[in-house]
Design a protein that fits this description.
Layout lengths: L22 E7 L11 E8 L2 H8 L9 H5 L1 H11 L9 E9 H8 L5 E4 L20 H23 L8 H8 L8 E9 H11 L6 H17 L3 H10 L4
Helix pairs in contact: 1-3, 3-9, 5-6
């Protein structure tokens, strides 16, 4: 897993500072160069939950009241829960992202069944923007060829919709057919919500050296944004500490 930050020991960290109230986050991850519009994008929208909520879920059999003594035990409990495979308490916290990703990454994300996903639809209206992903590790000549080919596909997409009457098609049907002209480099917008358990599962599979570069980079951006928010400091430590190596 390509997480750049090293684990810090619990003794080196301050007191847990998080709220159980839903938290709105407006931090957007942008490509290295703002002028490059052909990279996938990740935006963290909301976080609802934190380490304390995980502990409260685990303490349901006794009481969920968070006394000062119990707060001091949150970190250890969260580590114990994850290490022992008692993961249901992690499912009570939610994380939502807005993504703009290429179709290949879009399809791979859809394979994760324990996510809530809404995707931009081009069936009921045409795409708002001609969004295209261009791999930045492709040489400049072939980047240009891919962009040119994709722009030709977008022109045919719009032309079919605009000329639907001449082609004897209803506009709704023309929009359905026009999508077949678009290549895998087409980017679509997604609204994706994980619970924390499903987020860690996604990270294990997609933030891995075995994953395709594009979805690996999306997963890393997600991780960085959630880590920066700080809600799940102990849970993220536990995930890294006890995960099996690739």
């Amino acid at each position: 897993m390509l997480v750049t930050r090293e684990l810090m020991s619990l003794e080196e960290k301050g007191e847990l500072e998080s709220s159980s109230e839903p938290q709105e986050v407006v931090t957007e991850e942008t490509p290295a160069e703002d002028t490059d519009n052909h990279q996938d994008k990740v935006e963290l929208l909301f976080i609802d939950g934190n380490d304390e909520r995980i502990a409260q879920a685990a303490w349901t059999s006794s009481t969920i009241e968070l006394t000062e003594d119990r707060k001091s035990r949150v970190a250890g409990l969260v580590h114990t829960l994850w290490k022992s495979g008692h993961t249901s308490p992690f499912e009570h916290s939610l994380i939502s992202f807005r993504l703009v990703v290429n179709n290949s990454t879009h399809i791979q994300i859809l394979k994760h069944r324990h996510l809530s996903i809404n995707c931009e639809s081009a069936r009921y209206r045409r795409y708002r923007d001609d969004k295209t992903y261009i791999p930045d590790d492709l040489c400049e000549e072939w980047q240009g060829l891919l962009l040119s080919a994709t722009e030709s596909c977008w022109k045919l997409y719009h032309r079919l919709i605009d000329d639907h009457e001449e082609l004897g098609l209803e506009k709704a049907r023309a929009k359905e057919i026009a999508k077949f002209f678009l290549p895998m480099s087409t980017q679509v917008e997604m609204f994706v919500t994980f619970n924390l358990h499903s987020f860690f599962h996604f990270q294990k599979l997609r933030n891995s050296r075995h994953a395709q570069r594009e979805i690996r980079e999306v997963a890393q951006k997600m991780w960085d944004l959630v880590e920066e928010a700080g809600n799940f400091r102990h849970a993220m430590e536990a995930f890294l500490l006890y995960k099996k190596e690739d």
